Amino acid sequence: MKVKILYTTPQLCGLVVLRVLVGWHFLYEGIVKILNPKWTSYAYLMDAKGIFRKGYHFIADNPGFLKIVNILNEWGLFLIGLSLITGCLTRMSTIGAMALLAVYYLSHIPFVGADYLLPSEGAYLWVDKNLIEIAVLFVLLVFPTSRITGIDRFIFKDQAKVKPVK
Q1: Residue 111: inside a domain, yes or no?
Q2: Which residues contact 114 (CB under 8 A, 6 or more apart)?
Q3: Which domain holds residue 57?
Q4: How many domains does the chain have?
Q5: Which of 24, 37, 41, 116 has its CA 20 to 30 A from that of 130?
Q6: Residue 161 main-chain phi, psi, to 5 deg
Q7: Tens digits of residue pLDDT in 11-36
């Protein structure tokens, strides 16, 4: 079954720019962590006060688990970013990015009375940058562009007919 997805040029441009910017954010975060041999998620996990804090603390307190989580986090960020920028396997990477951001959000939910040791970038109540980026990724998931302007157009060329509207 072929699916037609039609966008106006401004819609397509806006969605592609959004996809690339979010991709850059993930890619850069991954590169910074990969290139810093001293980086670890230990302090972040130990500072968790969300509903799964005991799980986060368990990971941080177990060096083997912590090492695995650090590698998965670094390379997950990098690969998600690369995928979004290039438009390659974006559906999978968008869902993965949303899941990763949900893990971050649930570890440091911005609720009244939460006193985190790590400094935040602002004063949040329930809605922070992670939740906003999850919403942005949901928009990118339901309005895909990679089959028009990405590597996905070559991978999935037989499955969808996608083109912008003039």
Answers
A1: yes
A2: 49, 108
A3: 20-155
A4: 1
A5: 37
A6: -110, 110
A7: 999 999 999 999 999 999 999 999 99
